[in-house]
Write a structure and sequence with these properties.
single chain, Rossmann fold, alpha/beta, 10 helices, eight-stranded mixed sheet
């Protein structure tokens, strides 16, 4: 199975290295191969719409080009939807006299750190488990590295958290049964809801850890800080069972760029390219050139997409030799 045959793609990296451009180019490349693709931006500072010269705000899936749909996730709106969903699930499961207090506690929890990430992960879970049936692949354009690491490690962390909640709920039910002294199993819809959510997290975690279905790509530039940050991110994710198989080295100075200034920059860049070759020798390496102009039109995005496709094809040919 090649890099172009996966169902889920996560494109990550340091801020400003070209994640959104690479994500859009990858999505466009797959779409031009006849696949039906959904490009999802999880970065609060969305710029997918700017790349396609379209307005994708509103949190709905929109058509960008042939075979390619785009969704810019509104994390604040998703957080509100998430909280309303939790309240809806609890309605009817707790006594009416307690509902107001329970809702107050939920609202307090919603303002705590990490609540938007939890809501965002819930949305990603729905896309991976349900929306994927409508597409051949989903490409996620993620926020800068730290945010991405927290997001991708959430399935593991939330799984542990849900286990703790279920265990406490189970003990409470057992104590209640003993107190009633009838030995009957307590019918607990709240436990069933928690168990259902735990199973969803388990299913999505299995998909995200399956290298046959999911590809992790980190984008970096041939500079000191992006190299250091990428190496740390790859190691951290590896510790959580997530293996980054590919890197895209973006904005490499092309050989035809002339002048003393560019010659000096190329010489400096050569040292970092050598470091990248050694430091990321376990990753598939794809190189994209610095263009003469910004990626400011669909035609320039198609140019990058074409270059990305050629590089990936070269990698595939080399791996098959």
């Amino acid at each position: 199975m090649t890099m172009l045959d996966k169902k889920i793609y996560f494109i990550g990296g340091k801020g400003g290295v070209g994640k959104s451009t690479t994500s859009a180019a990858m999505a466009l490349l797959l779409a031009q191969k006849g696949k039906k693709i959904l490009l999802v931006s999880t970065d609060p500072a969305h710029n997918t719409g700017d790349l396609f010269h379209r307005n994708f705000t509103g949190g709905k899936i929109e058509r960008a080009t042939r075979n390619l749909d785009v969704l810019e996730i509104d994390s604040e709106q998703e957080s509100r939807n998430y909280i309303n969903g939790v309240k809806g699930n609890l309605k009817g499961l707790v006594k009416a006299t307690m509902l107001e207090e329970v809702n107050r506690q939920i609202d307090m929890a919603a303002s705590s750190p990490g609540s938007e990430e939890a809501a965002l992960f819930d949305k990603i879970t729905s896309l991976v488990l349900e929306e994927i049936t409508n597409y051949d692949a989903i490409v996620f354009d993620t926020a800068p590295t730290g945010h991405t690491i927290r997001l991708l490690t959430l399935p593991e962390l939330m799984g542990v958290w849900m286990d703790g909640l279920l265990e406490r709920r189970k003990k409470a039910n057992e104590n209640y049964a003993q107190w009633m002294n009838d030995g009957e199993v307590v019918d607990d819809p709240l436990y069933d809801k928690l168990n259902e959510r735990k199973n969803r997290f388990k299913r999505v975690r299995e998909i995200l850890l399956d290298g046959r279905q999911t590809e992790y790509v980190f984008v970096l530039n041939a500079e000191r800080l992006p190299i250091l940050e990428t190496a740390k991110a790859i190691e951290t994710l590896h510790q959580h069972g997530i293996h980054v198989n590919s890197i895209v080295v973006n904005k490499v100075i092309p050989e035809e760029a002339d002048g003393r200034f560019m010659a000096q920059r190329r010489s400096n860049e050569r040292l970092y390219l050598d470091e990248i070759a050694e430091k990321f020798k376990n990753q598939r390496q794809v190189f994209l050139p610095l263009l003469e102009q910004d990626i400011s039109s669909l035609s320039s995005l198609e140019l990058i997409s074409g270059l990305l496709g050629k590089q990936i094809d070269m990698n595939i040919e080399q791996s098959q030799k």
